[in-house]
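@channel anyone free to eyeball this complex?
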Amino acid sequence: MSSDKLLVVEDLFVSYGSIEAVKGISFSVNRGELVTILGANGAGKTTTMRTISGLIKAKSGSIRYKNIELTSMPAHKIVALGISQAPEGRRVFGTLTVEENLFLGAYTKEKLNKKVLSWIYELFPRLKERKNQLAGTLSGGEQQMLAIGRALMSEPELLLLDEPSLGLAPVLVKTIFDTIKQIKEEGTTILLVEQNAKAALKLADRGYVLEVGKIVMEGTSKELISSPKIQEAYLGKKKAG
Amino acid sequence: MEIFLQQLVNGLTIGSIYALVALGYTMVYGVLKLINFAHGDLVALSAYIGLVILMQLAGVLSPALLILITFISTMVITAIGGIVLERAAYRPLRRAPRLSAVVSALGASMVIENGIMLIWGPMPKIYPASVVPNINFDLHGVYISLMQILVLVISLVLMVALYLFVNRTKLGTAMRACAIDQDAARLMGIDVDKVIVTTFVIGSALGAVGGLFIGMYYRGITFNMGWIYGLNAFVAAIIGGIGNIPGAMLGGMLLGIFNAFISGYISSSWSMALTYVLLIIIMIFRPTGILGERVAEKV
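replying in thread with the prediction:
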């Protein structure tokens, strides 16, 4: 598996002014895998995701996707290479319609792929029902579906999902995670950042644990689930969907 | 009744000009959340550039061709001016505090205004009479000139074109997305810098049409006219709802008609003062402007 690395992050440092948010992390994602990054609030998970997408510049280190260096690339070119992201907090365009949001997801494509659109409407029938509605009028769960659907519109090889379960009712968390599983099974490689460790490890092949900007543990999901430290810190008292 | 209709025609004419200029303020505000104070001065600059082109080509070309060439070349040159303005005054400050950009905008405004004065002098310049043939149509006592018809028709066509561009095209949708959330737009693969430049190009080109109309309709232009026309257009943009494109069109028309009625029924010396009374009243009852209401965005 190690020969088929899609994304390789090496010794990545990211800081906001003088505050270091990510302190030399290294990890990789293989083609076809679902990898999760776990960690508490402020561990540097979102910073890592934003840096991969090119929204923040790394201070040092490297991010290579298919052996192409991403750290000096503007965000819009990274999308064109095949990495898209459903960001934390969903960030849908509230005053645009659901369908306009989806069309923007395919911005880097010359022509809209109708098959992808109908696939997304199959994954999230709710979006089809509401396609002419303004995205800002959707419920939180529907907005999350839209954020994921929008990210899929660019037909990414690597999908970045940042806290897709944040603020959702347990029943919706299950729907979202079931869909993520389905997306993975249909061939998209996924990097999933989550606070909901139990739900994330259930889906993931491998995982990394991030604490205050450093990776403190890594392994297969099985290894992580059975680790006493993880059980205590991330699984014990947390409610999972 | 005749005064009413006559002032309505006059109001719609000047309102179209305000609307064209107001669009430049509102589009840039929409995308950058910045009041481009130099926009009015760019409009003034376009009136001077248009005059130079007119004088160079007058007599060489037929009237229709002369007007067409003058408009197109002035729009292109002013759009380039808009690109330079964005590069020099705003892009370096994109991540700076908001106040720095405002100061830069005011500085750019003064640079352009005084630049015009240095090149063309402090005395007013006069557009030649009847660039557009001076034909008046008498509609039962209400007069409408060919110039007014030209202003109304061209403005309407440009505004419909802009509306279709923003609402029906991919780049237009990207522009609306950038106005909502630039980082999310980047995650869609949108080149935000390109969208910002496009916004300046369109705003400046529309402003250039406004500047040419001012020259051709009122004939007298001054180096500091960007201040007064810019301020009126800015007020129009706020009345309509700053950042809202149909709002700028509506605000411009309303302000033009309002000014014309003040001039027709009271006195033109009151129009500026009462414009601000109108602005204050609208801000009290609708702080976001007439069309400036936004759907609540859930997070």
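from a first look: Residues 295-299 of chain B have pLDDT under 50 and may be disordered.
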